[in-house]
Amino acid sequence: AQAILFARVCAVAPRSSMPPRANVAAPYASVFIVVTAVARVAAFQPKDSAHCLQWRSAKQGGKSTALRAEGLHGEPSADDPTLCRLRTRLGPGAISTRAGEEQMQRSGYANTCTTDDRPEAVIGEDSRHLAVGIVGGIAVNSTVSLGAISCRPIANSCSQGCHEAEFAAVRQGSDELEFAVLDPTCDVWWREVSSDVIPPIPELALPLGISPKGYKLGLCRTFGHQPGVDGSHRIVGTFVMEGPDFGQCFFTRHDGSKGQLNGGNFHILQARAAEPSCQEDARLAADLRDGLAKRVEVFLSEDDRALIERPSGTLFAELFAQVLALGSCMLKQVMSPARFVPSPLNSLGLHLLRALLAERMGDARARAAGFDTDPDFIAWRRDGFLMKDYDAIGDQGLHRLLQIASAEPVEAIPVPPYKWASRNVTVTAGPDPQNDMHIDTFASIVKVWLFDQSVSPEEGPLEYVPGSHRETEQRLRWMFAYSLPPAREALVEPSFRLMGSESVAHAAKDFVEDCLARSRPMLPLPGVRRTLVIADTSGLHRRARGTAGHTRLSWRLAGDNDGGLRRLDPYRWPLDLEGRMASPARSQPKEEL
Fold first, then answer.
1. pLDDT value, residue 314
2. Is there a cis peptide before residue 486, judged by omega within 30 degrees of 0?
3. Quick one: pLDDT at residue 43?
């Protein structure tokens, strides 16, 4: 299985491709429209893998099956919940699950699970629990005969003894009760999410349905070890993947009280499907080759090409000739935002080509938008982060900084007023994956935090290596070592870890040591009530270890925004403020780490 594969189970199907920019100027319009459309559709859209999880009754071969979990809190337990659902949709006057799916398909969605329409299933500001249940034993106080099994909706709880209105009980073997059945060609699992790390791998997150307002919903599961959170039980809830409740896990405790976790400290259901055989398309391949060749011609100077050659030891012309010889299936991946593309060509420098081209095109977009001479952009380009007094600049100041950081005047830039969501992180004595220095991906990503004056080294502040977001020769050598086939570490975790393996740490020893020496904590500005931090997390960063028991108070921009700004196609063509194709300067300043 390849870590770049996208998966969707019982999932929302994209309605249509995102339209290309209509105002791209000739003569390149026919080339760049094709590439842009392909890349933007691929940007963190799960692939259609509805076959991975199916609902079947016992007569159809369905049975209660537990899903595996990974991470520090993924050890098997008798408390592990298993999934079920009823064919009749929950709620007064509700339509059946089958009819609901047919209705959703007519609306442009496929294989979509329905929501629970009962009043107790309302969650957050604008969401509902999915109409999914947990397999239980024989119901207490039930008039259903022995041999019945309960499928308790996740919106309900019944540990103290259930009344019939609080659960659905049917005879085992009935067509009414269905179980989640996994396709043997897929991997479906509970992915552990550390505090404030939503979304962990957005292309693998598993949408199971949609809210009444059209927001994607998935499933989450508590760790089952926190008495004050989940009563030391693993509880399945609904994970909101879009909209105002984005990043929150809503669940019902065994005592009937409602709980929620925001931004992490729970599992989410993810899936990875075997790649369906891709049909090569000669015409599409020609368009992709033309688009890539034009981008390389315009944006990569001779110095840039030499920069790729030195770590890889391969002439750029040899690398590029082999890239252009790829078919449409691989070229679509190369020109996508996928964090890592497994390929034998990585031994020639393919990953370096993708990273440096994305950076140079980002620089060109900043110039085209007129941001390149702004002092804040100069600092952003040099350091990879900005720190400001939020009370002094306000929402309008933040809006301007988001435009500068993303080099986009309008696209994907939220407009004021801004709403913030609390994302507090408590330091634990055990290991935290976020303590490892890492990058989120190969291309620029904008993330945003607010910290108050309570954050100190004991609270585990954000740490960042200034300038590590730029593609210097030292960083390229490190990425080259990480991407070399078989690239086992990159396949498991495409967010490259600074010391992901001994071989990588040895191959780029100077870079690793320099980054560890220069990493600095993002502590609040002196005398400032609320410190705004904007960081490019394609640079090396981590959560400092802190002191167990201390809690870092922080706030993130509310909504489905990847923790800051929504990720876009890194190879989108730069346009000026009037929508015309920009002419980038060929010379590039030399990068020094």
1. 97
2. yes
3. 34
Residues 6+ apart with CB under 8 A from 443: 337, 355, 358, 359, 362, 538, 570
Q: What are the pLDDT digits (tens) for 260-305? A: 998 888 999 888 777 666 889 999 999 999 999 999 999 999 999 9
The pTM of this model reads 0.74
Per-residue H/E/C for 383-398 = HCEEEEEHHHHHHHHH
Q: How far is CA 524 from CA 197, 270, 458, 527, in A?
A: 21, 36, 13, 8
User: How far apart are the C-alpha atoms of 379 and 465, rounded to whole Å?
Assistant: 14
Which amino acid would we find at residue 411?
A: E
- Which tokens is 121 given? 């299933």
Residue 6's closest CA among 181, 186, 184? 186
* Distance, CA of 404 to CA of 370 (rounded, Å): 9
Q: What is the pLDDT of residues 403-413, one digit of tens each?
A: 999 999 999 99
CB 222 within 8 A of CB 233: yes
CA distance 288 to 32: 9
Q: Are 419 and 126 in contact (CB under 8 A)?
A: no
**149 and 135 in contact (C-beta within 8 Å)?**
yes
**Terminal-residue alpha carbon distance, the chain:** 35
List Cβ neighbours of 521 (8 Å cut-off, separation of 6 or more): 457, 461, 462, 463, 544
Q: Measuring CA to CA, how many Å separate 516 from each of 360, 438, 443, 463, 506?
A: 26, 11, 21, 10, 14
Question: Is 145 strand, coil or helix?
Answer: coil
Q: What angle do CA 575, 22, 356 make, to 5 degrees?
A: 40
- What's the token pair of residue 88? 């009749």
3-state DSSP percent of the chain in helix, strand and coil, to 5? 30, 20, 50
Strands 248-252, 236-240: pairing is antiparallel
CA atoms within 13 A on the CB side of 464: 23
**Span 424-443, mean pLDDT?**
89
Cα–Cα nearest to 213, from 130, 126, 129: 126
Question: Between vectors from CA 241 to CA 237 and to CA 245, what angle results, nearest 5°?
Answer: 80
Concatenated DSSP letters of 82-140: -EEEESSPSSTTPPPHHHHHHHHHHTT--SPBPBP-SGGGEETTTEE-BS-EEEESSPT
Residue carrying the six token digits 């499907």:
273
Q: What is the 3-state secondary structure (H, E, C) of 281-345?
A: CHHHHHHHHHHHHHHHHHHCCHHHHHHHHHHHCCCHHHHHHHHHCCCHHHHHHHCCCCCCCCCHH
Q: What is the pLDDT of residue 489?
A: 86
Residue in 1, 161, 199 with CA at minimum distance from that of residue 220: 199
Structure tokens at 540: 């090396």
Residue with tokens 């409602």: 258
